[in-house]
Amino acid sequence: xxxxxxxxxxxxxxxxxxxxxxxxxxxxxxxxxxxxxxxxxxxxxxxxxxxxxxxxxxxxxxxxxxxxxxxxxxxxxxxxxxxxxxxxxxxxxxxxxxxxxxxxxxxxxxxxxxxxxxxxxxxxxxxxxxxxxxxxxxxxxxxxxxxxxxxxxxxxxxxxxxxxxxxxxxxxxxxxxxxxxxxxxxxxxxxxxxxxxxxxxxxxxxxxxxxxxxxxxxxxxxxxxxxxxxxxxxxxxxxxxxxxxxxxxxxxxxxxxxxxxxxxxxxxxxxxxxxxxxxxxxxxxxxxxxxxxxxxxxxxxxxxxxxxxxxxxxxxxxxxxxxxxxxxxxxxxxxxxxxxxxxxxxxxxxxxxxxxxxxxxxxxxxxxxxxxxxxxxxxxxxxxxxxxxxxxxxxxxxxxxxxxxxxxxxxxxxxxxxxxxxxxxxxxxxxxxxxxxxxxxxxxxxxxxxxxxxxxxxxxxxxxxxxxxxxxxxxxxxxxxxxxxxxxxxxxxxxxxxxxxxxxxxxxxxxxxxxxxxxxxxxxxxxxxxxxxxxxxxxxxxxxxxxxxxxxxxxxxxxxxxxxxxxxxxxxxxxxxxxxxxxxxxxxxxxxxxxxxxxxxxxxxxxxxxxxxxxxxxxxxxxxxxxxxxxxxxxxxxxxxxxxxxxxxxxxxxxxxxxxxxxxxxxxxxxxxxxxxxxxxxxxxxxxxxxxxxxxxxxxxxxxxxxxxxxxxxxxxxxxxxxxxxxxxxxxxxxxxxxxxxx
Length: 743
Ligand code: NOJ
Description:
This protein is α/β, with parallel strands linked by helices. The chain has three domains: 331 residues, TIM Barrel (Alpha-Beta Barrel); 208 residues, Rossmann fold (3-Layer(aba) Sandwich); 110 residues, Sandwich (Immunoglobulin-like). It is built from 23 helices and 25 strands. The chain has a six-stranded mixed beta sheet with strand order 11-16-15-14-12-13, with helices on both faces. A five-stranded parallel beta sheet has the order 4-3-2-1-10. It binds 1-deoxynojirimycin.
């Protein structure tokens, strides 16, 4: 009897294990699902297959050129696989109804949207979030974004954007995580985990889409959509890892980029989409194009017409056409003409259907259409409180001479001056999904609610963001005279970064520098609060005796989160993830550059034949990893210990100021001699730690030799024995160092 019981238990365990391994094998797809998919494919007409590979936009948000299609009729004919820019339960439910009740095969649609930094509750722009160096918080922001988006009918986000970028003229740096591949990869994985959770079938998780594959961030001259031309080694070493990190974290889809790679647009790049993505990386999700990027191959000049472009894309391994309608229009003919095989189309359809299966749409197509969730799970007090916290963590204190900040308790009258001081519309930044600008807290509102009646608050705009009109200066100066503290809100408008928002000069636009100079001249304490979507060349502003707090675009809770820092309720801890150049001529500028054969040595500043500018220092204005606190940290006793393949690094960090604070302790490595030259520094670790005033903490990092590996000309990644330098510090430029050897 006892034995019988034991074998029954063992049997149950075995079944549970098998079910689990079936579930985890291919993102939750079990053999019954596969059988269902195969049966469907068998039963589909070529038009229906092309339909599954077609993604259209509903008229709600316009995120690209519009094409006129009667997509509703097409949905009923089973010719649309998914819809984007459609959200809210009733709206989505009606489209899904058309698909699953009116089309012949009743295949549910997938609903996508650019949920880039929140859905309704908008968080700081991704570049800002990355400056928090808080992976758990970034993951949580996507968890909340997914909760809100799925409560409004969505199940697929075109995020994360993980393009490494070293050119701040490119407006899309706002959507990414900055210039560093290692940090960018960690953040990429955290975002995927946040969106997808542990169960894609749950009604509050959504499928992530890593984008834009590949190397979209390397657009020449920082001009959006421009050509990319990077070496194979650079591609592997610097650009590809964050996409791979997304896939390793389970991202269910990936988006092709607009640019070409080695002369072939990504969307027709078989090497990229099949050899690398499927064969080398084993990707088991689906590939969607970027917006009309199949059609754009005609402009690129590698396809004769849309039909030819469709042939190239499907044969390269691209599964779904976003907005271009080329698969729908031409795949049937192309198959007839034997220019595309039925197998290629079936493969693509299989990936798309699997994605829908993973999301549980075949079990319940209305899984994400729950009215009560829409009413109760969006913009909750907890979500807003978290957003406020993330704003404060994302801000970076760039300058604080004479401890201008935090605003002293003694201040009685504050003048908020500047075009961004009370601009609700600009707080969301770009790609603000379903966020409503009317619900944003401006700087003025945030300061007002924090300061209460204790402080008199005055406000003048002074000038516009982006024109030459100085007529408001006088009123602003008059107001400033009445105050004993000035908060100057400067920067870019929200629309000045993001897609199709490249700038050739990236200083403060308009007459804002003049306004700042006029304010500094008053002799009053001035704290500049910057709003912008990219690093700016603020040399002029920086030369003034003012405090500067970089706040990016903070989203719904911008004003509150900034006020928390201005009044010292919170201590700034953000660190730049992208270098601030002195001027545009220094671009591209990034911390992990190569040494060159003729490195400039500041101790020998008269040397001529060295790698330098005649008219500008090589150093940036603010380096990668930089950010001040209201307290100070010092670093000492950096020690390295090599033990077999382990490298242990410890450093002591002391809080030498007079308040508690958080420090992002950064660890960099330099490989002194490599068969492929190595950068002067490479980020290999960081820890964000709370250190009380007067306290010293010992921070330990454990690396392995695998962390020293780099790509070689044969595109294999391995490390080379020799001498290395470890650097620890408060940013990439201010470090202490120690050497170690690995054999
Ligand atoms: C084009 C953008 O490049 C991409 O990032 C976005 O997801 C799509 N439009 C859809 O809006």
